Amino acid sequence: MEEVGSQQSSRSAGLNWERAEEVMKAKGIAALIATTPENIQYVIGSQLRASNWTMQIYAVLPADRSTRPCIIIPTNRLGVVAQFGITNVDIFAYSDFFVEGTIEGKPSTPDIDLFYSLLQSTVIHKSPLDALQAALKQLGIEHQPIGIDEMRIAPQILEGIKKTVPNEAVIPSYGLFRYIRLIKTSYEVSRLQEAAVLNEQIEKELIDLIEAGVHEKQIADHYRLAVMKGGGIPAMTAVGAGPRSALPLIENYFHTIESGDQVRFDLCLQLEGYWADTGRTVVAGEPTPWMKKHFDAVKSGWETALEHVRPGVKASDVFHAAVSRVQGEGIPHYRRQHVGHAIGLELYDDLTLSPGDQHILEPGMVLCVEVPYYELGAGGFQIEDTVIVTPDGFEFLTHMERKLFTK
């Protein structure tokens, strides 16, 4: 049992307790209720995912630190709870699910032991609403204002909870969770760096594969398999060669690399829930003057963006500085909707380096900085890295060379 529980205890450090308490106090709420997989993981430290849109899974984060978080899950998820060793929460299960047999004197494993124990001890409620109401009652907050992540709670359950709270004092809180998560704990920074390092290690492997005669799909397949071998989950795999390097999102692969083609990577993965997003550009042969000029302009804009990444700078100011630099360095018509985004348990956390974003950069924010360019009929370029905002500026979480690669 120690082996299962130790995995969970090391994962719960992602929560920025001080920031969460500050938000709950400011809003006058007794708890925050997570409903999306990302926010649930943020509260309890482990991933609990629904297998369909009707399944309801919640995590309750009380404002009172002396009380434990609660999870509301279907009974069939008790086995998943046991596999992740989630022991630092109170469990409120709902709906019937039947598992027969006993482990007494039988072959078993630590997670089966815990699963069996949970089957014996967990009260099974009739519905997710009943289970959530029981959790709030146990916490002593069933008649107090609460915040609910509105993104994944069924409308009828939300209405049912509102009826029990005075003046229907239920605050939509998806945005509050995203605000809290914007400043990373040291644990989260470590997880994000591990994910970014895995991503760029595999990206180096892809660069080594580039040569005339190699199909885009071979590169994409290599990436996805390598991510899984590294313990991650592959996501966006934008691998575009030749004219297809100008396509922003690439989910189907048609082109065989020819000599002189440029190949653009924009690659995303998840590692234990945390995202990585990096990108590079490679030429299979000698770059043309046009390629060099446009890559140099893009890189100059990217460098300018980084020069502005420091505490106290407005996100939109980073954007304007980067775009202006690209325009002045050889792409006068350059346009872009953003030059980067915050990253964490979501690929896009609650900040973009965009013209309308008024966020002020703070230490502890983790950003992907990118200044890509796509020109149909010519090609595309990508340079994207991950940084953390520090008191004095920023530090890279990625360390791959930042150049136009040639093979």
What key attributes describe this structure?
alpha/beta, Creatine Amidinohydrolase, Chain A, domain 1, protease, 7-stranded mixed beta sheet, 2 domains, 4-stranded mixed beta sheet, Creatine Amidinohydrolase, about 20% strand, disordered N terminus, 12 helices, about 400 residues, aminopeptidase, hydrolase, aminopeptidase activity
Tell me what the structure shows:
- This is Xaa-Pro aminopeptidase.
- It comes from Paenibacillus amylolyticus.
- Keywords: Aminopeptidase, Hydrolase, Protease.
- The structure is a single chain.
- This protein is α/β, with parallel strands linked by helices and 407 residues long.
- The chain folds into two domains: 180 residues, Creatine Amidinohydrolase, Chain A, domain 1 (3-Layer(aba) Sandwich); 221 residues, Creatine Amidinohydrolase.
- The chain contains twelve helices and 17 strands.
- The protein has a seven-stranded mixed β-sheet with strand order 5-4-3-2-1-6-7.
- The longest helix has 24 residues.
- It is globular and about 70 Å long.
- The N terminus is likely disordered.
Kindly, what is the distance between the CA atoms of the first and last residues, rounded to a whole number of angstroms?
Answer: 51 Å
- CATH class call of the largest domain: Alpha Beta
What's the gyration radius in Å? 24 Å
- Poorly predicted ranges: 1-11
Which architecture of the largest domain per CATH?
Alpha-Beta Complex
Assembly category:
single chain
Fill in the CATH topology of the largest domain: Creatine Amidinohydrolase
Number of helices: 12
Strand arrangement in the largest pleated sheet: 5-4-3-2-1-6-7
- Helix residue percentage: 25-40%
What is the ordering of alpha helices and beta strands?
Answer: HHEHEEHEHEHEHEHHHEEEHHEEEEEEE
